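Structure in, sequence out. Go:
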């Protein structure tokens, strides 16, 4: 559940993030602040294999599910049309890219569902058509990846706004969008709104994204304590969205090096409204299978009578061998 507020400045304030348990990501143009170090070159080209699962649930009190998610694998393919050789019809490269998206729509009736669907579809299309960035990234190209993904969100913003302006029933529809892309062992994250991306490493859960919400702004300016913010009646008001009532959006971008054993979690606020971080961490630790972890997270949210749609993606990274 989200509503859109007037856009506010989304300062990427590391002190605020640190106060919440430490940022782990390197924001664009910012110095690395954290436990997750950029590894040496050899490690960065290490191929990690992901086991992923996603789940979306309407929750206990809603009539419709406005959340969407996507898990996709990108690979180079060679499709043989004709050959004299006894070889397989299609060959795939060993290199894989993994794409994860969660989106939480808003806008009443059909609007929310359509906004989140349209945004995911637009980003998916964009990612497919920028495949040139996906393999053997050189360091200068890594900056481009984040810039490209930010552009993907801007395109989605325009699409959702345009569609919303065409149909009075869809006017003002918008969506949060949190997206992670893993290529070799590099993780790229772009994010708008109140969904979240977490990384579990060494038994610790790190929140990689900030909520673009009015109450998080107020916490940052020390108007509210985090405890007050978690119960505040304006906690669903988001300060930036894909679509919504105004063009333009604040995109948060991060890049970090993944390691074998890392667990990635993307989720909508339906999960984090219900479950504190320590409960989420315990469930991820107790369920080493992504499918089991997703089911357990959704069950636990529903047991606490989730008033919102709940969507989770869990991905485990390991070495190829
Ligand atoms: Mn929600």
């Amino acid at each position: 559940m989200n509503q859109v507020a007037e856009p506010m400045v989304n300062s990427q304030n590391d002190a605020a993030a640190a106060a919440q348990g430490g940022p782990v990501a390197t924001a664009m143009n910012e110095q690395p602040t954290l436990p997750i170090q950029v590894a040496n070159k050899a490690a960065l080209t290490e191929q990690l294999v992901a086991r992923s699962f996603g789940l979306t649930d309407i929750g206990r009190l809603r009539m419709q599910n406005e959340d969407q998610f996507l898990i996709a694998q990108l690979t180079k393919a060679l499709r043989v049309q004709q050959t004299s050789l006894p070889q397989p019809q299609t060959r795939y490269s060993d290199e894989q890219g993994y794409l994860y998206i969660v989106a939480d729509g808003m806008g009443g009736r059909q609007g929310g569902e359509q906004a989140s669907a349209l945004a995911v579809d637009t980003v998916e299309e964009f990612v497919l058509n920028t495949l040139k960035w996906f393999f053997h990234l050189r360091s200068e190209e890594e900056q481009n990846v984040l810039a490209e993904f930010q552009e993907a969100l801007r395109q989605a913003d325009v699409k959702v706004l345009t569609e919303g302006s065409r149909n009075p029933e869809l006017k003002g529809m918008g969506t949060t969008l949190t997206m992670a892309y893993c290529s070799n062992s590099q993780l790229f994250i772009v994010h708008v709104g109140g969904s979240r991306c977490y990384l579990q490493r060494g038994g610790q859960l790190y929140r990689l994204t900030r909520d673009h919400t009015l109450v998080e702004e107020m916490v940052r300016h020390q108007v509210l304590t985090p405890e007050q913010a978690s119960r505040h009646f304006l906690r669903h008001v988001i300060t930036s969205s894909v679509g919504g009532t105004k063009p333009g959006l604040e995109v948060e971008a991060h890049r970090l090096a993944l390691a074998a054993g890392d667990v990635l979690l993307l989720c909508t606020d339906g999960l984090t409204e219900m479950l504190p971080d320590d409960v989420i961490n315990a469930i991820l630790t107790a369920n080493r299978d992504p499918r089991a972890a997703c089911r357990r997270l959704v069950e636990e949210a529903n047991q606490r009578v989730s008033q919102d749609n709940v969507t989770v993606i869990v991905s485990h990274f390991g070495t190829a061998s």
